Amino acid sequence: MKKIIIAIGIVFLGFTACKQENKLATEYNETMKEALAAHDAVMPKMGTLGMLRENIKKKSETDTITANQERYQEAIGKLEEAHHLMMNWMKDFSNEFPNALSKDVLSDDVYKEKLPLLKEQAEKAEEMKNAINSSIKNAQELLNKE
Fold first, then answer.
1. Which has the closest alpha carbon to 33: 22, 44, 25?
2. Could you give the CA distance from residue 140 to residue 45 in angstroms, rounded to a whole number?
3. Do 52 and 139 touch, CB atoms closer than 8 A?
4. Each residue of 6-37: pLDDT tens digit?
5. Cα 109 from Cα 5, distance rounded (Å)
6. What are 51-73's pLDDT values in tens digits?
7. Among 85, 95, 113, 130, which residue carries the largest CB count within 10 Å?
8. Which of 93, 24, 83 is nearest to 50 (CA)?
9. Rounded CA separation 114/105 (Å)
């Protein structure tokens, strides 16, 4: 009888450990998807950033109103900052997670170690996405006003 209870206890502990690991793996994988989705949502817009920057520069060269010049420079600065955020995020992310697209199952310890870093990268990716979208919107509105 004792052997049966011990065997059931070992099986139960095994299932509990698997559930914990599965929970960590699920959270890690979902966070990875969020980070990559934020990147993928705005990566195609990088050309738009450059185009808008050039259009605003051209417009600023022909506009002599000081107040407009300040707005042009501010918009250019936001576009450049958004571009730098993307470049820095991609560099940092690839350094932290060089095998991000790998389907390898990691150990419980690796998930525990990497998950906080991944959450930080996902937050930065969302901030980068918001900066890109808002700088594009701001630049388009500026160009359409004038």
1. 25
2. 13
3. yes
4. 545 454 444 444 455 589 999 999 999 999 99
5. 29
6. 999 999 999 999 888 888 999 99
7. 85
8. 83
9. 13
